[in-house]
Amino acid sequence: MQITSKLPNVGTTIFTVMSAMANEYGAINLSQGFPNFPTSERLNDLVTEHLRVGHNQYAPMMGVRELQEQIAHKIKLMYGVEVDPIQEVTITSGATEGLFTSIAALVHRGEEVIILEPAYDSYRPAIEVVGGVPVIYQLFAPDFKIDWDAVQALITERTRMIVINTPTNPTGAAFSPEDMQALERITADTNILVLSDEVYEHLIYDGLEHQSVLRYPKLRERSLAVYSFGKTFHKTGWRIGYCVAPPELTAEFRKVHQFNTFSINTPIQYALADFLKDPREYLELPDFFQKKRDFFLQQLEGSRLKPLTCSGTYFHLFDYSEISDMPEREFAAWMTREIGVAAIPVSAFYSNGHNNGVIRLCFAKTESTLKAATERLQSM
To answer: 266-275 vs 65-79: helix axis angle to the nearest 10?
Structure first.
């Protein structure tokens, strides 16, 4: 039997590779983006409560109404925007399903999708598997600044969508109001959609405000915004997120969603609806993670790893040029084997494997884990 792959150039993800290496060599795993500290017992108890009262059958395809309403309330509180919870909010199996479904529902064969790289690694395969054409705009260290005029020059009559991510994985950069206004300008009077990956909306530092597409009326009308409860509440294994979009885009999104995952874990939806009633659970997150970032940097003071700017996410980039001139993948593998700390090469987030001489480290760990890791990193 002959099989023609839809993704012939896709292999095992770098996250799986580096986590496997960390296990093999007994390295501290700062590569994959998952917290290793305890999560909310109150949220755990709420799940148990809803299991016991019988919320164990299929949820509605678009999501449990109570959770949709609490999300709409959160959006109003955060961004001052009224969202129709029933017509504009869909609960998804994690943010990755929300991203894939958005692309599958709205990108047709031969249509172009602009990606800003380095980019989260699910974007390009999702575009390719539905027959879309990825169009790459590259950003470079140390500041990964976007030239929006250069992005506009990539737009053609076949451009269907632009994918953005803020705060950005892997760079830790956060879009400014000027970035959003520029995006608004280059998409005005076009049929271009915006897919906005905002899973780190609550992980933003130094007094900055998250610039959601929902804040900008002209962007909101053409955008699908995707979020993650797993990233927000440190429960990545729960695989639950949501997509917010205008009714006409949501209708198309749900046509695919209903035949993809159909509905999402019922007791967890009810538990999250109750949990969101206390806004402190998400409003206090920037301070919580900024303290972790600052502790991590303090422990690395004097090392030969040079930190780049981190305005958001729970990842930090480091320039290792004072230590080695190895390509990023080789350096990350060497560091895992010889130093005992696993990292992600940022080149893995570029389609062409571009090397900036930079690695990504995750600081969503306990202080004891970060201290142990930085002691090893200081030895380089």
So the answer is: 40
